[in-house]
């Protein structure tokens, strides 16, 4: 048997500890509600997760985050370890591919009737699936191409017959070619818009810096932006995470280019249980912000001034990607540096640990099911080649977990 010097030192230290009958305090590593494995991803690289009222599950596989996400960018989870393209294989396969190499520079294909590169899938209060297409994809060397009009869109799918019932294509002055529409939340109450068909709120996490919140009237299809380029939606200068003991620097311009700190803007988004407040967080910050939704729904002459004057900082919560709400009105998010998932309770203004486990690192997306569980994906995003040192250090499988919500919490249904 062979011992390293370090393991001998540790052994001696532990013997010394026990002979002194002193237990040396250490990080317990686990805490809170236990987590259970729901699905193992062995094929493409996943981010989002959506769970319907009947337990059907869907994920997305952004073509910007992994150029090998070719066969599908949305899939249904059809067993514990396999996935099938959704709604069809054809809809996931733009003719000639997701990238148009006939433009200079290359750009996202302009198809309205095909998926280009999907960053989010969400089940709305009426149990319909919405697909948020960024219109962007990465070339084999990892560089993301800008979107073309037709690419960035929001697509509604009726789960009773797996048929598309609505497609909203974003104009290029709302979702810019170098935008990256990231995540979306729905309020379908008739009262929120003149059209009476509800509204969607979307984050723009663009690494090129076009960060903001996009608002879409689902009845008219009209969309507009708020908080563009404000500090509330931007990553912080000097921000540096450590995840699983690894310091996380970005490589926004490619492997052999200078390294930088995080470049991800507004990403996670969650509505309060009453729909009156929208929360969001940039990945490149530890802060949680909110705004009254009335300030976002307003698109009048002075509405942006009033929006900026209405942002509330809830202080720090750790580093998160996705955010989610339940009927307790708790706002859940990852805390990458602590292997935990936290929740913010607006009723007492505190952040609390919900669950903690060494398998938790980059919690990409959280979604509350109708079954009283919160589901979340762990996808090791900081180990993709777009982070220093530019090599692929991800280890399959990626994992979908779930955990029981406190206080009989369940999905918020604003309809
Ligand atoms: C699949 O996962 C569920 C729990 O999410 C479990 O009940 C079931 O036994 C699993 N099926 C297989 C074949 O492992
Ligand atoms: C590719 O770009 C060319 C030149 O702009 C354009 O005519 C064509 O429609 C584009 N095709 C796709 C699929 O985006
Ligand atoms: C799918 O189901 C919805 C709701 O029942 C219905 O309105 C729609 O017409 C159906 N679409 C097709 C193509 O059958
Ligand atoms: C990737 O390839 C494209 C097209 O050849 C080029 O414009 C871009 O600079 C390359 N990116 C890197 C990081 O090398
Ligand atoms: C805040 O509320 C949460 C959820 O009810 C609770 O767990 C926590 O103890 C509260 N914190 C304080 C300081 O009251
Ligand atoms: C949760 O629901 C169960 C069964 O309906 C009930 O007994 C329990 O009191 C509820 N707990 C809370 C915290 O509401």
UniProtKB/TrEMBL annotation:
Annotated signal peptide: 1-21
UniProtKB keywords: Secreted, Signal
Pfam families: MRJP
Compartmental location: Secreted
Coiled coil start-end: none
GO cellular component: extracellular region
InterPro entries xref list: 6-blade_b-propeller_TolB-like (IPR011042), MRJP/yellow-related (IPR017996)
Entry's family note: Belongs to the major royal jelly protein family.
The protein, known as: Major royal jelly protein
